[in-house]
Amino acid sequence: MPIPASSITIPGPNGPIPALTFGDCASARAAVILRYGFGGTMTVQWPEAERLVAAGYAVLVPEAPPHGLRSDGLLDRMACVMVWEARAMFLDLVESGSREIRPLVDHLARSGASRFAVAGVSMGGYAALAAPLQDPRVGAVVAFLADPVWEDRPHSPHLHPGAWSHVALLAVTADGDEVVPPGSLRVFAHSLASRFGSGSRFSSLEYRGGHEMDAADWNEAWVRAILWLDLQFP
Length: 234
Hints:
- The chain is of the alpha/beta class.
- The chain has a single domain, classed as Rossmann fold (3-Layer(aba) Sandwich).
- The protein is built from 8 helices and 8 strands; from the N terminus they run βββαβαααβααββαβα.
- The longest helix has 18 residues, at 215-232.
- It is globular and about 50 Å long.
């Protein structure tokens, strides 16, 4: 049976945030904010939300600005500009989404959660990597196919390693990723492990495919990601 979801709206710095919620925050092992990739909608990660709920987590999937129910035509305009301009617009979207992490955590806390993680894929992974800087209540981050280096932007995650002093990171990368090359995230995870200690807290899963991961690799990565989250939230 599919796990039911509730549709809600959360006040945010960029206006109301439509979201789907799964599971019960008060009884969950932890609450996970789950963020999807560029061009998606909040229903895209439904299977992963179900996996997390089955493992004992509550899940919140926010609609990213300006995607899905928040669409304003920006994504269409991005398709018509130069590559460098599209990159700047993309990072604007990432930063806009990352600024919504605190009100999302606030909502989960009001709903009874006391431990928090952020997981994201591609664009959602970029925003997830900003979570420790945005809200110190976040205890773990799972970043799929993302990059912590946002050029020279002051909120680029790679410029703020100190924000990770109490946060765990699982980095999932693909050798053949033609959209988000894996090097920066792998180096970032290794540097955090060197600075704050190794063990399970800073871990990497490395696959051979491209940005659209093979179905078997995707499935395995999520199985292992949930096992890793279990270690962070015993």
